[in-house]
Amino acid sequence: MASRKAGTRGKVAATKQAQRGSSNVFSMFEQAQIQEFKEAFSCIDQNRDGIICKADLRETYSQLGKVSVPEEELDAMLQEGKGPINFTVFLTLFGEKLNGTDPEEAILSAFRMFDPSGKGVVNKDEFKQLLLTQADKFSPAEVEQMFALTPMDLAGNIDYKSLCYIITHGDEKEE
Fold first, then answer.
1. What does UniProt note about where in the body, tissue by tissue, this protein is expressed?
2. Which residues line the annotated binding site?
């Protein structure tokens, strides 16, 4: 009888610890942020089974115009979860990344996906199309407002390095 109680206490303690662990993840973010992460998770979870798998990642990349993602890259992404990537794991991964990442570098990395030549610019028209049609779609007015503040080169391409600086440090012209 005593061993049964001890076993039950152990299970209860483990359950409480798991709940505490997952609740800590949710306490790292505001409710609005959690909702945005939930929307992002839903966009990636293409088959709507509550778990992000390799096929989900491949389809997400495909929708973003990147069709030849190496298997190793997809495997590496999935291995970061150390098991099935449900929403709680997804949120935990973002929490870990956001707490240890330089925001400017994270933004630059995202832009580099659209700059295969590494010139530091992205095509304005292609980027505009992505903003209007993918994930959290921008309205045409929002895109124009953003482009009004966006540094462009002479060819009309977005200088994303300067844009990242403005996003993370503010516009040096502002006073």
1. Predominantly expressed in adult atrial muscle.
2. 45, 47, 49, 56
Against a cut of 0.70, is the pTM above it? Answer: no
DSSP 41: H
Annotated binding site for Ca(2+): 45, 47, 49, 56
Alpha-carbon separation of residue 4 from 9, 15, 17 (angstroms): 9, 16, 20
> What are the pLDDT tens digits along the chain (175 aa)?
444 444 444 434 333 333 334 447 787 778 888 998 999 999 999 999 999 999 999 999 999 888 889 999 999 999 988 889 999 999 988 887 766 545 677 889 889 988 989 999 999 999 999 899 987 788 999 999 888 889 999 998 999 998 888 776 666 554 4
